[in-house]
Amino acid sequence: MSVGVSAEGIAEQIGACNPKQRDAKAVGRAKSAVILAFGRTLSGAPAAITRALLGIPGIAPAAGPSLVFGTERRTSAVDAALTNAAAAAAGSEVSIDAANAAFIVSLFGLCEERQKTGQAFLDALMFGAEMSASLAPTTLPPAAGRFGSALLGSVVAAMRVLELSPPRIAAALVMAGIAIPDHAPDGQSGLSSLTIGLSLRNGLLAAFLAEAMDEASCAAMSRSERSTISSHAAPSSTPAMTDNGASKGAALDLLAVHSPPGADLWEQFERQASAVLPRDHIAPLFERLETIDKVTDLATVSRLLQGRGTQAAPKKVVFAPRGTHEPEETNWVP
Prior knowledge:
CATH class: Mainly Alpha
CATH architecture: Orthogonal Bundle
CATH topology: 2-methylcitrate dehydratase PrpD
Helix content: 55-70%
Order of helices and strands: EHHHEEHHHHHHHEHHHH
Largest sheet: 2 strands, antiparallel
Radius of gyration: 23 Å
C-alpha cells in the first residue's frame, strides 16, 4: 500500500540526522570502497565512451578546479561528476559496482572544488550511503534499482558537503528526482555509462541550484505538486528481497565492497590504475587513499590521479661540439 511522502518530510529527516561516531571497521570498509571506485574509474578512463565525452565541444571544458580522472583536464565539479561517473561505469564489470563507483567518484570533484579535507569527503560519502540505504526502500519505486539509490545517495552527500538547510534539501530532491531506470543488469554499454554519468551530474547540479536559490523559493518548490513522493515500502515488516536472496537494503549498500573471493585490493587497484597512470604514481596514490581521512588537501590526491600525459618531459640539453660556437655579440665598448 502506497502512502504519500513529502520532499519536505524527507528533507527534515536528512537535516535532523546526526550520525554517531563511526567505528574503525566502518571507516576501513568505506576506504576500501573508495580505493575500488577510484581504480574502476581509472580503468574506464581510456574507454570509448569517456574519450568521446571529452571530445565533444562544451563538455567538461578545461576551466575549473576538479580533475577528470586519468587526464590533465580540470573542469567544473558538475562536469567532473559526469565524466568520472561515466568512466566508473565503463570500468565496472557489473552494474552494482558501476552504481557504487559512480556514487563515490561523483562527489570527489565537489570536495576538491570546495577545498574540503579527506575526512569531510569520507564523512559525506558515509552519510549519503547511510541515508540512501535508509530512505531508498520507502521512497524509490522498484524500477529505480541500484542507480536510483546511487542518485539519491549522491544528492544527500552533496547536501552534506554544501551544508544545505532543510528547505534547500527538499528543493534539491525535487529538482534531481529520485528515480532513474535500472537499465543494464550486468556489464556496461556506452549508453548505460552515459546514463549513469548524466544522472549523477544532474544530482550534483540540483544541489548547486538549491544552494543558489533563496529559501522561500525552495520552500515553494517543495510544496508544489511534484514534491510528493510515492512510497513503495513492502507492506510487511520483512525487508524486501532481491532476486539473489539478499535484502534490498544490503543490495543497495553504496559502500559495499564487491571483490572476488581472495582478491587482493592492492593487486586489483594496481592493475586498474596502470591503464592510465604512471607507475610511480600508483603506490603513492594507493597509500594516500588508504589514509584519506588524514588528508588535509585533496589536491595531493588529485595530482596523483593525473594521467601519463600530464608530466612535463625533462628538457633535453644538447651541447654543441667543442670549438663550433659562434662568438657571442656584445654591446661592450672598450
